DNA sequence: TTGACAAATAGACATTCGTCGATATGATTA
DNA sequence: TAATCATATCGACGAATGTCTATTTGTCAA
């Protein structure tokens, strides 16, 4: 048996880990279709500013947010394209027999 | 501000938590398009049988596997439809502006 | 240049999580 | 019935995770 690491799985695991927290999903929802600073996000949440920064770093490492520093503020935006790419890959791996997966793969393939 | 819990997020968090482990994703991949017993899964993995049972219970609680007891064996199968439903919901919540999300929502809506 | 503000980092702490070996439960077979 | 096999559960342990306060870093304004 070939003993190689499954890169597809690794990506899917990293994506799932990044999304596996309610606070992070709240942050993702907040900056979904808009640009927000860390302060603005913190205002709308029930956790401290360092905690928000911590979660944003995790989302950044997973490629799930884009970052735009502007002066002393930093704007974060959810990377929707990345979300669809990861979900599409998960569907390809774990739901290859579903019709909708076929649809998605056709829509995502360039 | 309305202080209600977001049920969509809760489902999405539960799904992500269930998928946020490499061992579990390996198990999911193994029983993706086939029925496997706990023993058969354990043989193909590098962890102990109790660990496999533990992960199968987590996947079961998330609705990601179906269970068929037969005599003293138990067959597990990945629930591909559940995977697409969860991925579709995540795309609706976190990628509402992507074209592919529109496609998926149309394909998944009954 | 000094003071104020925004964000990131460090360190501490409690909780959750993944894993194991040992054991219990339940079903088949001799 | 007794022995065996398949699976689940228990209890323990170390590692990872989420949160906080305190502090640092970097930027703007008085």
Terminal-residue CA separation of chain A: 33 Å
The total count of strands of chain A amounts to 3
Number of helices of chain A: 6
Largest interface: A-B, 39 and 39 residues
Task: Please state the CA-atom Rg of chain A, rounded to the nearest Å.
Answer: 16 Å
Largest sheet entry of chain A:
3 strands, antiparallel
Helical residue percent band of chain A: 55-70%
Topology:
2 copies of one chain form a homodimer.
Chain A: H1 7-19, H2 22-30, E1 36-37, H3 38-43, H4 49-61, E2 65-70, E3 73-78, H5 80-94, H6 99-108
Helix pairs in contact in A: 1-5, 2-4, 5-6
Chain A binds a DNA duplex (30 and 30 nucleotides) through helix 4.
Summarize the structure in words:
- 2 copies of one chain form a homodimer.
- With 110 residues, chain A is an alpha+beta fold.
- In chain A, 60% of the residues lie in helices and 13% in strands.
- Chain A is built from 6 helices and 3 strands, in the order ααβααββαα.
- Chain A has a 3-stranded antiparallel sheet with strand order 1-3-2.
- In chain A, a hairpin with a 2-residue loop joins strand 2 (65-70) and strand 3.
- In chain A, helix 1 packs across helix 5.
- The mean pLDDT of chain A is 94.
- Chain A binds chain B through residues 6, 9-10, 12-13, 16-17, 19-22, 25-26, 28-29, 32-33, 78, 80-81, 83-84, 87-88, 90-91, 93-101, 103-104, 107-108, and chain B through 6, 9-10, 12-13, 16-17, 19-22, 25-26, 28-29, 32-33, 78, 80-81, 83-84, 87-88, 90-91, 93-101, 103-104, 107-108.
- The first copy, chain A, binds a DNA duplex (30 and 30 nucleotides) through helix 4.
